[in-house]
Amino acid sequence: MAEEGVYRPIGKLPTLELIPVADRKSFRVIGEELAEDADHLFLRRGALSLSKQELGEYRIIETSPTILVGETRIWVGGHALDVHGASFEIKPGGLPEAVVRIAQDGNFSLFILLGTDRDGEFVLFRDDASYGDATPQVIRGEAIAPFYEHLEQVFEQRRRPENKRFPPDLSRLSDDKARQALLTAWFENAFAEKFAYNRSNDGFYALVDGYLRLCLSLYAETGDASYLEAARALYARLEAYGWLLPSIHYHAARVFALREDVEPMLEALYRAYQYRAPNLAGMSEEEAFAPFRDHPRLLALRERYQREEARYRYITLEVLEAYEAVAAADDEAFNRYLRQKIMDGYVFYDAPQLAEQEAVSEQADYWRALAEKSIPFFRNYMLLEGLEALGPLDKRVLERFQSYRDYRILSPLVYVKLADELFKSAHHWTPWSEKFFGQGQQGRMQECMALLEVFRQRLEQIDDAGERQRLAAAAEGYEAYSFICSP
After folding, report:
1. What is the pLDDT of residue 12?
2. Full-prediction pTM beyond 0.70?
């Protein structure tokens, strides 16, 4: 039984967290960032609670972010600022024209206004383009003019293509050397911040892959080894993330081969193989590898690839280890992106397949370790996470379900989840005036009932009573199950 009280959503996930001091009966949401009950105001969805008695008379200014004005101070984005609230007023039209242009430019992304209180004029400023949760600032008196000058200088730097968070537009450049130079400058300036901003974007990794190929092409054209060094330097920064687009490792191996760095070349090639880069099929014909074709490790890799070509798209232990190595403790959205890349990019083994491989393979430890990582991953996430972007009845989702519907390791909740979508869809497309479903919706309801029956059967096969109860309780959260199966 959940504790009684008021709950707030956490991040973008449908998760709720109790606001301990909130009164359930009088609680109401009064804005995107504000809520209240009889005795409190809650900022940032309950992250900050203020007593109305201590706050005194207050007003709310609907800017973005919201400004809460009390008697003695103001709050912006959950931050208390040293501004006298009772005398606070916004001074419209007081900002210099150059600063207004900066505020309106998407490359800067700032919140700025001119205000007054009993202590005089001040600038209220928050730089939303600074990576992370920016803290508002109050600039007063003689510091205002130098602040405006500094703002213009920073803006001039930030508006340069190599300093923007978004990758630069290369379409206007027809020369490969100019493209490579612009990309090099972009990667080298504030790389950590740009990576943090772009790391959940497939296009970023495609840009890295394209940059490596561009450097290789320019080296072939000019013989200038600085292009190889530029490619090597970028790969060194992103090596741990190359599994998200495995061809990055393959092209890095070409770079190392041309530099005659044999061990890094072999390491990158093995990573390309472990993460299932599609380029490996052309490894034998690649000119960069020609001087090393008789190297024992390269010969062994070629043999392994040919031997495993039939199951080349299947998940590997190395992929799951790479995921664990870069998963971020403080960024669940990024972790969901990583998991979705794995579920989209690889085929999983069922438990009997893993057991069979462990029994017959000379690498029994490898298959045992793969089972230990892949089975929980599959059970916890496959067809349960990441459907929001596609829509649960999307063709790709249904095709994936058909591929995995008989897997022993598939979570029983998957059947309830898809049954629920069929149930909702059938009712959505049937007018209220109709007493019966049409032929198409009748088919969806029949499939819904069949999936719920599979869930019931799967539940009966689970020996652990606690796990059965947990899954049954989770199923109650779906309309189809609660309407059709609940007593």
Report:
1. 33
2. no
